[in-house]
Specification:
The protein contains 17 helices and nine strands. With 481 residues, it is of the alpha+beta class. Strands 1, 2, 3, 4, 5, 6, 7, 8 and 9 form a nine-stranded mixed beta sheet that branches. Strand 7 and strand 8 form a beta hairpin. It starts with a helix and ends in a 7-residue tail after the last helix.
Length: 481
Protein backbone atom coordinates (compact mmCIF):
# COMPACT_ATOMS: atom_id res chain seq x y z
CA UNK A 1 0.00 0.00 0.00
CA UNK A 2 2.79 2.42 0.79
CA UNK A 3 4.16 2.02 -2.75
CA UNK A 4 0.75 2.86 -4.19
CA UNK A 5 0.42 5.89 -1.93
CA UNK A 6 3.92 7.16 -2.69
CA UNK A 7 3.51 6.87 -6.45
CA UNK A 8 0.12 8.56 -6.49
CA UNK A 9 1.43 11.28 -4.18
CA UNK A 10 4.35 11.83 -6.57
CA UNK A 11 2.00 12.14 -9.54
CA UNK A 12 -0.34 14.47 -7.64
CA UNK A 13 2.44 16.80 -6.50
CA UNK A 14 3.97 17.04 -9.97
CA UNK A 15 0.53 17.62 -11.52
CA UNK A 16 -0.13 20.57 -9.21
CA UNK A 17 3.37 21.88 -9.91
CA UNK A 18 3.09 21.51 -13.69
CA UNK A 19 -0.46 22.86 -14.03
CA UNK A 20 -0.71 25.39 -11.22
CA UNK A 21 -1.87 28.12 -13.61
CA UNK A 22 -4.50 25.79 -15.04
CA UNK A 23 -5.84 24.95 -11.59
CA UNK A 24 -5.96 28.63 -10.64
CA UNK A 25 -7.91 29.43 -13.81
CA UNK A 26 -10.31 26.60 -13.03
CA UNK A 27 -10.92 27.93 -9.52
CA UNK A 28 -11.56 31.36 -11.02
CA UNK A 29 -14.11 29.78 -13.35
CA UNK A 30 -15.96 28.29 -10.37
CA UNK A 31 -15.93 31.53 -8.37
CA UNK A 32 -16.86 33.53 -11.49
CA UNK A 33 -19.96 31.43 -12.10
CA UNK A 34 -18.78 29.96 -15.40
CA UNK A 35 -20.25 26.77 -16.84
CA UNK A 36 -16.74 25.31 -16.94
CA UNK A 37 -16.69 25.18 -13.14
CA UNK A 38 -17.95 21.60 -13.37
CA UNK A 39 -14.41 20.31 -14.04
CA UNK A 40 -13.63 19.59 -10.37
CA UNK A 41 -16.59 17.20 -10.34
CA UNK A 42 -14.87 14.95 -12.89
CA UNK A 43 -11.92 13.78 -10.71
CA UNK A 44 -14.24 13.25 -7.74
CA UNK A 45 -16.56 11.11 -9.87
CA UNK A 46 -13.51 9.29 -11.26
CA UNK A 47 -12.22 8.42 -7.77
CA UNK A 48 -15.65 7.14 -6.69
CA UNK A 49 -15.91 5.04 -9.86
CA UNK A 50 -12.37 3.71 -9.35
CA UNK A 51 -13.26 2.61 -5.80
CA UNK A 52 -16.09 0.49 -7.15
CA UNK A 53 -13.88 -0.92 -9.89
CA UNK A 54 -11.03 -1.71 -7.47
CA UNK A 55 -13.31 -3.98 -5.42
CA UNK A 56 -13.43 -6.48 -8.26
CA UNK A 57 -10.94 -9.31 -8.28
CA UNK A 58 -7.88 -8.89 -10.46
CA UNK A 59 -7.71 -11.57 -13.11
CA UNK A 60 -4.73 -10.70 -15.32
CA UNK A 61 -1.21 -11.92 -14.64
CA UNK A 62 1.32 -9.34 -13.41
CA UNK A 63 3.78 -8.29 -16.11
CA UNK A 64 7.24 -7.18 -15.05
CA UNK A 65 8.56 -6.16 -18.50
CA UNK A 66 8.97 -2.37 -18.37
CA UNK A 67 9.88 -1.68 -22.00
CA UNK A 68 6.32 -1.29 -23.26
CA UNK A 69 5.35 0.78 -20.20
CA UNK A 70 8.26 3.16 -20.71
CA UNK A 71 7.62 3.56 -24.45
CA UNK A 72 3.89 4.28 -24.02
CA UNK A 73 4.52 6.51 -21.02
CA UNK A 74 7.18 8.56 -22.82
CA UNK A 75 4.97 9.02 -25.88
CA UNK A 76 2.05 10.19 -23.74
CA UNK A 77 4.17 12.58 -21.66
CA UNK A 78 5.69 14.16 -24.75
CA UNK A 79 2.24 14.46 -26.31
CA UNK A 80 0.93 16.25 -23.21
CA UNK A 81 3.81 18.72 -23.51
CA UNK A 82 3.03 19.32 -27.18
CA UNK A 83 -0.67 19.95 -26.44
CA UNK A 84 0.19 22.38 -23.66
CA UNK A 85 3.01 24.23 -25.41
CA UNK A 86 1.92 24.20 -29.07
CA UNK A 87 -1.74 23.37 -29.66
CA UNK A 88 -2.91 25.50 -26.74
CA UNK A 89 -1.32 28.61 -28.26
CA UNK A 90 -2.97 27.97 -31.63
CA UNK A 91 -6.38 28.24 -30.04
CA UNK A 92 -5.70 31.26 -27.86
CA UNK A 93 -8.93 32.95 -29.02
CA UNK A 94 -10.95 29.91 -27.92
CA UNK A 95 -8.90 29.12 -24.82
CA UNK A 96 -11.77 29.29 -22.32
CA UNK A 97 -14.04 27.33 -24.64
CA UNK A 98 -11.64 24.43 -25.33
CA UNK A 99 -9.41 24.43 -22.21
CA UNK A 100 -6.82 22.27 -23.94
CA UNK A 101 -4.62 22.71 -20.88
CA UNK A 102 -7.06 20.40 -19.06
CA UNK A 103 -6.64 17.86 -21.86
CA UNK A 104 -2.87 18.12 -21.41
CA UNK A 105 -3.35 17.63 -17.66
CA UNK A 106 -5.37 14.46 -18.28
CA UNK A 107 -2.76 13.16 -20.70
CA UNK A 108 0.06 13.89 -18.24
CA UNK A 109 -1.62 12.07 -15.35
CA UNK A 110 -2.56 9.08 -17.53
CA UNK A 111 0.93 8.81 -19.03
CA UNK A 112 2.64 9.22 -15.66
CA UNK A 113 0.42 6.42 -14.34
CA UNK A 114 1.55 4.15 -17.18
CA UNK A 115 5.18 4.99 -16.47
CA UNK A 116 4.94 4.45 -12.69
CA UNK A 117 2.36 1.65 -12.44
CA UNK A 118 2.45 -0.11 -15.78
CA UNK A 119 0.16 -0.48 -18.75
CA UNK A 120 -1.87 -3.38 -17.34
CA UNK A 121 -3.33 -1.40 -14.38
CA UNK A 122 -4.03 1.46 -16.78
CA UNK A 123 -6.03 -0.86 -19.02
CA UNK A 124 -7.86 -2.39 -16.03
CA UNK A 125 -9.16 1.10 -15.17
CA UNK A 126 -9.70 2.11 -18.81
CA UNK A 127 -13.35 3.09 -18.28
CA UNK A 128 -12.32 5.37 -15.42
CA UNK A 129 -9.79 7.10 -17.65
CA UNK A 130 -12.49 7.55 -20.29
CA UNK A 131 -14.67 9.12 -17.63
CA UNK A 132 -11.85 11.45 -16.60
CA UNK A 133 -11.55 12.66 -20.20
CA UNK A 134 -14.90 14.40 -19.66
CA UNK A 135 -12.76 17.14 -18.17
CA UNK A 136 -12.54 18.37 -21.80
CA UNK A 137 -15.33 20.98 -21.70
CA UNK A 138 -16.32 21.47 -25.35
CA UNK A 139 -18.83 18.56 -25.52
CA UNK A 140 -20.29 19.74 -22.22
CA UNK A 141 -20.71 23.30 -23.55
CA UNK A 142 -22.40 22.02 -26.70
CA UNK A 143 -24.78 19.88 -24.62
CA UNK A 144 -25.66 22.82 -22.35
CA UNK A 145 -26.19 25.04 -25.41
CA UNK A 146 -28.59 22.52 -26.95
CA UNK A 147 -30.49 22.17 -23.64
CA UNK A 148 -31.04 25.91 -23.27
CA UNK A 149 -27.92 27.26 -21.56
CA UNK A 150 -29.51 27.81 -18.12
CA UNK A 151 -28.61 26.40 -14.71
CA UNK A 152 -30.88 23.39 -15.15
CA UNK A 153 -29.11 22.58 -18.42
CA UNK A 154 -25.79 22.82 -16.59
CA UNK A 155 -27.05 20.34 -13.99
CA UNK A 156 -28.34 17.90 -16.63
CA UNK A 157 -24.94 18.06 -18.33
CA UNK A 158 -23.15 17.00 -15.15
CA UNK A 159 -25.66 14.17 -14.65
CA UNK A 160 -24.10 12.55 -17.71
CA UNK A 161 -20.84 12.37 -15.73
CA UNK A 162 -22.70 10.90 -12.74
CA UNK A 163 -24.52 8.33 -14.86
CA UNK A 164 -21.28 7.08 -16.40
CA UNK A 165 -19.52 7.02 -13.02
CA UNK A 166 -22.28 4.98 -11.38
CA UNK A 167 -22.36 2.54 -14.28
CA UNK A 168 -18.61 1.98 -13.94
CA UNK A 169 -18.68 1.69 -10.15
CA UNK A 170 -21.49 -0.87 -9.86
CA UNK A 171 -21.19 -2.57 -13.25
CA UNK A 172 -19.91 -6.03 -12.39
CA UNK A 173 -21.93 -6.95 -15.46
CA UNK A 174 -23.59 -4.86 -18.17
CA UNK A 175 -27.13 -5.20 -16.84
CA UNK A 176 -26.18 -4.15 -13.31
CA UNK A 177 -24.28 -1.16 -14.67
CA UNK A 178 -27.29 -0.03 -16.72
CA UNK A 179 -29.63 -0.35 -13.73
CA UNK A 180 -27.24 1.60 -11.56
CA UNK A 181 -26.84 4.35 -14.15
CA UNK A 182 -30.61 4.64 -14.65
CA UNK A 183 -31.12 4.79 -10.88
CA UNK A 184 -28.57 7.58 -10.64
CA UNK A 185 -30.27 9.49 -13.44
CA UNK A 186 -33.66 9.14 -11.77
CA UNK A 187 -32.39 10.35 -8.39
CA UNK A 188 -30.26 13.16 -9.83
CA UNK A 189 -33.00 14.53 -12.07
CA UNK A 190 -35.47 14.39 -9.16
CA UNK A 191 -33.11 16.44 -7.03
CA UNK A 192 -32.51 18.83 -9.92
CA UNK A 193 -36.24 19.30 -10.42
CA UNK A 194 -36.72 19.98 -6.73
CA UNK A 195 -33.94 22.57 -6.77
CA UNK A 196 -35.52 24.29 -9.77
CA UNK A 197 -38.78 24.61 -7.82
CA UNK A 198 -37.61 25.35 -4.28
CA UNK A 199 -34.16 26.96 -4.79
CA UNK A 200 -34.31 28.66 -8.20
CA UNK A 201 -31.78 31.31 -7.13
CA UNK A 202 -29.12 28.85 -6.00
CA UNK A 203 -25.70 29.40 -7.62
CA UNK A 204 -24.85 27.54 -10.80
CA UNK A 205 -22.18 25.48 -9.05
CA UNK A 206 -24.84 24.03 -6.71
CA UNK A 207 -26.86 22.82 -9.71
CA UNK A 208 -23.72 21.29 -11.19
CA UNK A 209 -22.41 19.50 -8.09
CA UNK A 210 -25.22 18.54 -5.71
CA UNK A 211 -27.42 16.28 -7.91
CA UNK A 212 -24.59 14.22 -9.45
CA UNK A 213 -22.63 13.77 -6.21
CA UNK A 214 -25.71 12.78 -4.23
CA UNK A 215 -26.73 10.36 -7.00
CA UNK A 216 -23.28 8.72 -7.14
CA UNK A 217 -22.98 8.32 -3.35
CA UNK A 218 -26.55 7.21 -2.66
CA UNK A 219 -26.97 4.80 -5.57
CA UNK A 220 -23.45 3.40 -5.27
CA UNK A 221 -23.76 2.86 -1.51
CA UNK A 222 -27.27 1.46 -1.85
CA UNK A 223 -26.28 -1.12 -4.47
CA UNK A 224 -23.20 -2.06 -2.43
CA UNK A 225 -25.27 -2.71 0.70
CA UNK A 226 -27.92 -4.58 -1.28
CA UNK A 227 -25.39 -6.89 -2.92
CA UNK A 228 -23.67 -7.53 0.44
CA UNK A 229 -26.81 -8.15 2.49
CA UNK A 230 -26.18 -10.82 5.08
CA UNK A 231 -22.41 -10.59 4.56
CA UNK A 232 -19.64 -8.52 6.16
CA UNK A 233 -19.58 -4.95 4.86
CA UNK A 234 -15.98 -4.14 3.95
CA UNK A 235 -14.90 -1.49 1.49
CA UNK A 236 -12.23 -3.74 -0.04
CA UNK A 237 -13.03 -7.43 0.32
CA UNK A 238 -10.18 -8.83 -1.72
CA UNK A 239 -6.43 -9.11 -1.30
CA UNK A 240 -4.48 -6.08 -2.42
CA UNK A 241 -2.22 -7.37 -5.15
CA UNK A 242 1.39 -6.15 -5.25
CA UNK A 243 2.39 -3.56 -7.80
CA UNK A 244 3.73 -5.48 -10.78
CA UNK A 245 5.89 -2.67 -12.12
CA UNK A 246 8.64 -2.45 -9.51
CA UNK A 247 11.47 -1.05 -11.58
CA UNK A 248 10.35 2.57 -11.91
CA UNK A 249 13.56 4.47 -11.23
CA UNK A 250 14.07 5.33 -14.90
CA UNK A 251 10.52 6.74 -15.11
CA UNK A 252 10.72 8.96 -12.01
CA UNK A 253 13.17 11.57 -13.42
CA UNK A 254 11.43 11.45 -16.81
CA UNK A 255 8.08 12.44 -15.30
CA UNK A 256 9.83 15.17 -13.33
CA UNK A 257 11.51 16.63 -16.43
CA UNK A 258 8.22 16.76 -18.35
CA UNK A 259 6.50 18.36 -15.35
CA UNK A 260 9.17 21.08 -15.23
CA UNK A 261 8.68 21.73 -18.94
CA UNK A 262 4.91 21.95 -18.52
CA UNK A 263 5.26 24.38 -15.63
CA UNK A 264 7.16 26.81 -17.86
CA UNK A 265 4.29 27.14 -20.34
CA UNK A 266 2.20 30.28 -19.90
CA UNK A 267 -1.48 30.16 -20.61
CA UNK A 268 -2.57 32.25 -23.59
CA UNK A 269 -4.18 35.66 -23.28
CA UNK A 270 -6.99 36.53 -25.67
CA UNK A 271 -5.71 40.08 -26.09
CA UNK A 272 -8.67 42.16 -24.96
CA UNK A 273 -8.30 44.41 -21.93
CA UNK A 274 -10.19 43.58 -18.70
CA UNK A 275 -13.62 45.21 -18.33
CA UNK A 276 -14.01 48.73 -16.94
CA UNK A 277 -15.86 48.74 -13.61
CA UNK A 278 -18.52 51.45 -13.23
CA UNK A 279 -20.64 51.07 -10.09
CA UNK A 280 -23.84 52.78 -11.25
CA UNK A 281 -23.80 51.56 -14.83
CA UNK A 282 -27.32 50.65 -16.05
CA UNK A 283 -28.19 47.97 -18.60
CA UNK A 284 -32.00 48.17 -18.71
CA UNK A 285 -32.20 50.05 -22.03
CA UNK A 286 -30.40 50.06 -25.41
CA UNK A 287 -27.34 52.25 -25.76
CA UNK A 288 -27.89 55.97 -26.17
CA UNK A 289 -26.46 57.17 -29.46
CA UNK A 290 -24.26 60.30 -29.48
CA UNK A 291 -25.30 63.50 -31.21
CA UNK A 292 -24.85 63.40 -34.99
CA UNK A 293 -26.01 59.78 -35.19
CA UNK A 294 -29.46 58.19 -35.19
CA UNK A 295 -30.75 54.64 -34.86
CA UNK A 296 -32.18 53.44 -38.18
CA UNK A 297 -33.11 49.97 -36.97
CA UNK A 298 -32.93 47.88 -33.81
CA UNK A 299 -33.23 44.14 -33.33
CA UNK A 300 -32.97 41.88 -30.27
CA UNK A 301 -31.69 38.29 -30.34
CA UNK A 302 -32.81 36.24 -27.34
CA UNK A 303 -31.08 33.03 -28.40
CA UNK A 304 -27.82 34.27 -26.90
CA UNK A 305 -29.09 33.18 -23.46
CA UNK A 306 -28.08 29.67 -24.55
CA UNK A 307 -24.49 30.91 -24.54
CA UNK A 308 -24.46 33.64 -21.91
CA UNK A 309 -27.23 32.32 -19.67
CA UNK A 310 -30.25 33.66 -17.85
CA UNK A 311 -31.59 36.95 -19.14
CA UNK A 312 -28.71 37.56 -21.57
CA UNK A 313 -29.59 39.55 -24.68
CA UNK A 314 -27.95 40.66 -27.89
CA UNK A 315 -29.17 44.02 -29.16
CA UNK A 316 -28.17 45.13 -32.67
CA UNK A 317 -28.52 48.85 -33.40
CA UNK A 318 -28.06 50.02 -36.96
CA UNK A 319 -26.83 53.60 -36.65
CA UNK A 320 -26.47 56.13 -39.45
CA UNK A 321 -24.70 59.48 -39.42
CA UNK A 322 -27.02 62.49 -39.73
CA UNK A 323 -24.74 63.95 -42.37
CA UNK A 324 -21.82 62.84 -44.47
CA UNK A 325 -18.18 63.55 -43.73
CA UNK A 326 -15.59 63.63 -46.53
CA UNK A 327 -12.98 62.29 -44.11
CA UNK A 328 -14.81 58.96 -44.00
CA UNK A 329 -16.28 58.84 -47.52
CA UNK A 330 -14.96 60.63 -50.60
CA UNK A 331 -18.54 61.36 -51.74
CA UNK A 332 -19.53 62.60 -48.26
CA UNK A 333 -22.17 59.88 -47.91
CA UNK A 334 -23.51 59.26 -44.37
CA UNK A 335 -21.76 56.24 -42.95
CA UNK A 336 -23.58 53.29 -41.43
CA UNK A 337 -22.31 51.31 -38.42
CA UNK A 338 -23.58 48.30 -36.56
CA UNK A 339 -23.47 48.34 -32.76
CA UNK A 340 -23.93 44.86 -31.27
CA UNK A 341 -24.32 44.76 -27.48
CA UNK A 342 -24.31 41.56 -25.43
CA UNK A 343 -25.55 41.96 -21.84
CA UNK A 344 -25.30 39.10 -19.35
CA UNK A 345 -25.62 38.41 -15.63
CA UNK A 346 -22.96 35.74 -16.02
CA UNK A 347 -19.86 37.88 -16.76
CA UNK A 348 -17.43 34.98 -17.06
CA UNK A 349 -19.33 33.63 -20.05
CA UNK A 350 -18.09 36.55 -22.16
CA UNK A 351 -14.57 35.12 -21.97
CA UNK A 352 -15.78 31.62 -22.90
CA UNK A 353 -17.69 32.59 -26.02
CA UNK A 354 -15.81 35.28 -28.01
CA UNK A 355 -17.73 37.69 -30.22
CA UNK A 356 -16.64 35.82 -33.36
CA UNK A 357 -18.82 32.86 -32.36
CA UNK A 358 -22.00 34.92 -32.79
CA UNK A 359 -21.51 35.32 -36.53
CA UNK A 360 -21.17 32.97 -39.48
CA UNK A 361 -17.56 33.77 -40.40
CA UNK A 362 -16.33 30.44 -41.69
CA UNK A 363 -13.03 30.92 -43.49
CA UNK A 364 -12.78 34.64 -42.68
CA UNK A 365 -9.33 35.93 -41.72
CA UNK A 366 -8.93 37.96 -38.54
CA UNK A 367 -6.07 40.27 -37.62
CA UNK A 368 -4.25 40.55 -34.34
CA UNK A 369 -5.94 42.76 -31.74
CA UNK A 370 -4.73 46.36 -31.66
CA UNK A 371 -5.12 48.05 -28.24
CA UNK A 372 -7.02 51.34 -28.28
CA UNK A 373 -7.46 53.74 -25.35
CA UNK A 374 -10.82 55.51 -25.32
CA UNK A 375 -12.15 58.26 -23.10
CA UNK A 376 -13.17 57.65 -19.46
CA UNK A 377 -10.46 55.02 -19.09
CA UNK A 378 -12.10 52.50 -21.43
CA UNK A 379 -9.57 50.09 -22.94
CA UNK A 380 -10.76 48.64 -26.24
CA UNK A 381 -9.38 46.36 -28.91
CA UNK A 382 -9.54 46.92 -32.67
CA UNK A 383 -9.20 44.24 -35.33
CA UNK A 384 -10.16 43.52 -38.92
CA UNK A 385 -12.09 40.62 -40.42
CA UNK A 386 -11.55 39.83 -44.11
CA UNK A 387 -14.06 37.69 -45.99
CA UNK A 388 -12.41 36.60 -49.23
CA UNK A 389 -15.61 35.08 -50.59
CA UNK A 390 -17.58 38.35 -50.27
CA UNK A 391 -14.53 40.54 -50.98
CA UNK A 392 -15.27 42.80 -48.01
CA UNK A 393 -13.39 43.87 -44.91
CA UNK A 394 -14.96 44.75 -41.60
CA UNK A 395 -13.15 46.90 -39.08
CA UNK A 396 -14.26 46.27 -35.52
CA UNK A 397 -13.70 47.86 -32.14
CA UNK A 398 -14.73 46.08 -28.96
CA UNK A 399 -14.72 46.68 -25.21
CA UNK A 400 -16.43 45.41 -22.07
CA UNK A 401 -17.67 47.16 -18.95
CA UNK A 402 -19.44 45.99 -15.83
CA UNK A 403 -21.18 47.18 -12.67
CA UNK A 404 -20.03 44.12 -10.74
CA UNK A 405 -23.01 41.82 -11.22
CA UNK A 406 -23.80 42.45 -14.89
CA UNK A 407 -21.42 42.86 -17.80
CA UNK A 408 -21.83 44.25 -21.29
CA UNK A 409 -19.70 43.68 -24.36
CA UNK A 410 -19.99 46.30 -27.09
CA UNK A 411 -18.86 45.58 -30.64
CA UNK A 412 -18.94 48.30 -33.30
CA UNK A 413 -18.62 47.18 -36.93
CA UNK A 414 -17.76 49.24 -40.02
CA UNK A 415 -17.59 47.84 -43.55
CA UNK A 416 -15.34 49.10 -46.33
CA UNK A 417 -18.29 49.07 -48.75
CA UNK A 418 -20.09 52.38 -48.14
CA UNK A 419 -23.21 51.57 -50.18
CA UNK A 420 -26.59 51.35 -48.45
CA UNK A 421 -26.75 47.68 -49.40
CA UNK A 422 -23.37 46.87 -47.85
CA UNK A 423 -23.26 43.49 -46.13
CA UNK A 424 -22.67 43.29 -42.39
CA UNK A 425 -22.15 39.94 -40.62
CA UNK A 426 -25.46 38.75 -39.20
CA UNK A 427 -25.64 37.18 -35.72
CA UNK A 428 -26.71 33.56 -36.19
CA UNK A 429 -25.47 31.54 -33.23
CA UNK A 430 -24.48 28.75 -35.62
CA UNK A 431 -21.69 26.82 -33.88
CA UNK A 432 -20.80 24.79 -36.97
CA UNK A 433 -18.87 27.68 -38.52
CA UNK A 434 -16.84 28.04 -35.32
CA UNK A 435 -16.11 24.31 -35.20
CA UNK A 436 -15.06 24.33 -38.85
CA UNK A 437 -12.70 27.22 -38.17
CA UNK A 438 -11.17 25.27 -35.29
CA UNK A 439 -10.47 22.29 -37.55
CA UNK A 440 -8.94 24.63 -40.12
CA UNK A 441 -6.57 26.00 -37.48
CA UNK A 442 -5.76 22.45 -36.33
CA UNK A 443 -4.71 21.19 -39.78
CA UNK A 444 -3.44 24.38 -41.42
CA UNK A 445 -2.26 26.49 -38.49
CA UNK A 446 -3.12 30.01 -37.37
CA UNK A 447 -1.85 31.54 -40.61
CA UNK A 448 -4.86 30.11 -42.46
CA UNK A 449 -7.24 32.39 -40.55
CA UNK A 450 -4.89 35.29 -39.79
CA UNK A 451 -4.82 38.62 -41.58
CA UNK A 452 -1.10 39.25 -41.17
CA UNK A 453 -1.11 42.66 -42.88
CA UNK A 454 -4.31 44.39 -41.74
CA UNK A 455 -5.36 47.74 -43.16
CA UNK A 456 -7.62 49.64 -40.77
CA UNK A 457 -9.54 51.74 -43.28
CA UNK A 458 -12.11 53.00 -40.76
CA UNK A 459 -9.89 53.30 -37.71
CA UNK A 460 -10.46 57.03 -37.26
CA UNK A 461 -14.23 56.70 -37.75
CA UNK A 462 -14.53 53.90 -35.22
CA UNK A 463 -12.40 55.62 -32.58
CA UNK A 464 -14.32 58.90 -32.89
CA UNK A 465 -17.67 57.15 -32.73
CA UNK A 466 -16.59 54.88 -29.86
CA UNK A 467 -15.40 57.87 -27.81
CA UNK A 468 -18.69 59.66 -28.44
CA UNK A 469 -20.67 56.52 -27.56
CA UNK A 470 -18.77 56.05 -24.30
CA UNK A 471 -19.33 59.70 -23.43
CA UNK A 472 -23.07 59.40 -24.14
CA UNK A 473 -23.37 56.53 -21.66
CA UNK A 474 -21.12 57.72 -18.83
CA UNK A 475 -21.55 61.50 -18.72
CA UNK A 476 -25.19 61.31 -17.52
CA UNK A 477 -23.98 59.08 -14.66
CA UNK A 478 -21.54 61.73 -13.45
CA UNK A 479 -18.47 59.62 -14.21
CA UNK A 480 -15.29 61.65 -14.45
CA UNK A 481 -13.46 61.43 -17.82
Amino acid sequence: MYRLILRWAYIAILTVFAFHDTLIRSVQTVTGGGMGGYVFLVPVAGVLAAIGLARRHRTELPIHDRQTDVIVGVMGLVFSLLIHAVLLQRYSLYYNLLRLDLVALWMFVASASVALFGLRPMIRFAWVWCLLFMIFPLPYYIMVFLLGGNKIAGGVGTMIIAGVAIGIAVGRDFTRGVYGSLGGWALGLTILGGMAVFTPNAPLVVYQYVPPLVAICVVGTGMFLFSRRGEPKRLLDRKVEPVAAKQIWSAVPLVLVIAVGLSLVRLPQVGFAPPLHVDNLRFDAPLTMPSGWHVADIETYDWVNRLYGGDATLVRQKVVADSGDPRFDKFARPRTLMVDTVTTNRPYSLSIYPARMLYHLEGARTSEIKPVSLSFGVQAGMFTVVDDSLLVTWDRIQWTWTNGSTSQRILIIAVDNHEDTAHFPEPTGDLTATLNSMFTVLFRGNAALLDSAPEFKDERLLIEFANALVRAQLEPLGVNP
